[in-house]
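Usage

Read records sequentially. Each one opens with the input sequence:
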Amino acid sequence: MKSRLFYGLFIVYAAMVAFVLAINGVFTGEVESVSNLVINGVFLGIIGILFVISAVSFMRLNSLTDELVDAAGDLKEAYKKAGNQNVWSELEKDKEFFEEENLKKAFAKFIQQMNNSRIGKRYAGSCDIEDYINEELLDRVGGSHYNSAISGTMTGLGILGTFIGLSLGLGSFSGDDIYTISDNVGPLLSGMKVAFHTSVYGIIFSLIFNFVYRSIMADAYGKLNYFLGAYRQYAAPPISSGDENTAAMLVYQANQANYMKELLELERGQAAEQARQLEQMAHAFMEKLQSVMGTEFRDLGAALQLASQAQTQNGENGKALLEAVDALAQSNRNMQESMEQMLKRQERLADDLEQQKRRLETVCQEISRDVSSQLYTFQQMRTLYDDEK
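and closes with the structure output:
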């Protein structure tokens, strides 16, 4: 119902036009001042044009938010048909889920971003549909940059009409004595009529439009939150959390460390066996050479023995490398603990931001009540001023 409040603007507008025509004697054929009627007609015409432009933007906004409500209902129905199972797999393939052009484009961008972050059957990253279908989209479709200025524009038109009316009345007022002054009282009062009439309907239209605009936008934001809640409950895709990604990385690194450890142990065992076999071969070779050629190859045996020792040293180096890999695994575990602490700090920061948001909303409500109170006081003072006149 709130989304259709702007129809009431035209009812109030028609009533105000009829009132202005009546007090200017159009219906009785007794028009006292053509200039008064023309000025009021121009001002009411400008306000009518502003209302029509606003109505167009409101209808576009209503079309979008109504589709969001229908989409939320479709998600709920699909969820029940799927046996209370998440319906994301069907939703991401439905390119015609939205018919409204702005929603269709925003949803297509969201699907593309989600596909870019796909990891197997899950999704990495923090992409959310609210990054694309949000209050900013509603403000753009509903022309908030335009409608938020309408209320002040109407008040400004009323004040402008006041000065124009007073200028016309004072411009036709002249005289040096009481007789000539009394003859110019009529034009002066006619100009004051323009001044007061434009001020009255300018302020009335401003107050009514501000109420209608805020009610429509509040209703639109409510429908948006309703859709986002249904989406997260029935169709939100499975997102890999930061803890899961970190754990997967640590598991991968641990597996790599174990694999390298096995290789080094195998290499160390093979090195020892090779050294033993090489030493036996060296002894056998030396004995054979000594029996054949004497002791000329003793130096060669010593060199082969040194090669065996070098092979053993390689095994020790491999052991040191294994210890370095274990130290790397320990460093990874320390990094995981640091990331867990960082996530806890982020959660505390999010709680603080939420509290600040609630305090800001409370302050905004108090400011709104103060402004409403001041406007009411201004209206009461103007009423008292009119009564005294």
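Summary fields computed downstream for this record:
- The radius of gyration is 42 Å.
- The chain has a mean pLDDT of 77.
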